[in-house]
Write a structure and sequence with these properties.
Largest sheet: none
CATH architecture of the largest domain: Up-down Bundle
CATH class of the largest domain: Mainly Alpha
Distance between the termini: 107 Å
CATH superfamily of the largest domain: Dynamin, middle domain
Helix content: over 70%
Shape: elongated
Number of domains: 2
Oligomer: single chain
GO molecular function, one term: GTP binding
Radius of gyration: 35 Å
Pfam family, one: Dynamin_M
CATH topology of the largest domain: Four Helix Bundle (Hemerythrin (Met), subunit A)
InterPro entries: Dynamin_stalk (IPR000375), GED_dom (IPR020850)
Domain GED: 173-262
Protein name: Dynamin
């Protein structure tokens, strides 16, 4: 039953090497903000661009597909459908470009770690004390009312704090690991909330508003509607010529049938 004596060891070799490389003459007693920010930017935030970009592209494809089906469902004449689709395509392209810029700015903000959310320190302390609390539960048999040896408790506290068994660099690397884990829990929630909100506010809502203006607002002039609602003279003449030829063929077929008695 001596397993309580051994806290799980966290492998921070990679972080420790990175800190030694970038710390310079900074005192190893404190977590380096510059190293912290660099790790957050390179190892985490840089990987957020791909899913963010995919979501934007998915929104664009979804809007394109939805509008095409909506336009086709009204069974308007082809010139009108082409006109409306052209407006949708133009406006969608414009709002996608603007939305891309806004999303890029939002992602750039995440490259500098910052928050006023008190949840950060709560998570930090929870992650820091969790191994100790788990070992204390093991020591007490998960019974908060159990009598345990104070010597055992002191031994756990010393082990948890790394007293006598960890170097300055190793302890600092562990603190950095916990700080990054705590911060990312705050930052990733903020970012995953922000992207869909920005897509709604900067892509969908402006697109709908612009379409209303272009299709049913002042931009939809009588002259424009007349041009797209009615076929051109050339189209009308061509269709009438084809109809005349068709009627002539039908009449000729009837006359031949009458002569042959078939």
């Amino acid at each position: 039953m001596g397993e309580w004596r051994y806290l799980d060891e966290l492998d921070v070799t990679d972080l420790q090497a990175l800190m030694l490389k970038n710390r310079g003459d900074e005192l190893p007693l404190f977590v380096s903000y510059s190293t912290f920010a660099n790790i957050v930017r390179v190892r985490y935030v840089s990987k957020w661009r791909a899913p963010m970009q995919k979501l934007l592209e998915d929104y664009e494809r979804l809007v394109q597909g939805t509008t095409k089906r909506a336009i086709a469902s009204v069974h308007a004449n082809p010139p009108l459908q082409r006109h409306v689709q052209s407006i949708v395509d133009t406006l969608l392209k414009e709002v996608v470009i603007l939305t891309q810029h806004v999303l890029d700015e939002n992602l750039a903000l995440e490259t500098r770690p910052f928050t006023l959310n008190h949840y950060l320190y709560d998570v930090f302390m929870k992650l820091r004390t969790e191994p100790l609390l788990q070992s204390l539960d093991t020591l007490s048999g998960n019974n908060d009312n159990a009598n345990v040896s104070m010597g055992a408790v002191k031994a756990l506290l010393k082990s948890h704090c790394g007293i006598g068994k960890a170097s300055n660099e190793e302890q600092q690397a562990k603190e950095l690991h916990i700080a990054i884990s705590a911060y990312m829990q705050v930052a990733k929630k903020r970012f995953t909330d922000a992207v869909p909100m920005l897509l709604e506010m900067r892509l969908l809502q402006p697109l709908v508003a612009s379409l209303q203006i272009r299709l049913v607002g002042d931009d939809a002039t009588d002259e424009l509607l007349e041009r797209v609602l009615f076929d051109s003279v050339i189209d009308v003449e061509a269709r009438e010529a084809l109809n005349a030829q068709r009627q002539s063929l039908i009449q000729s077929k009837a006359e031949i049938a009458a002569l042959t008695g078939s």
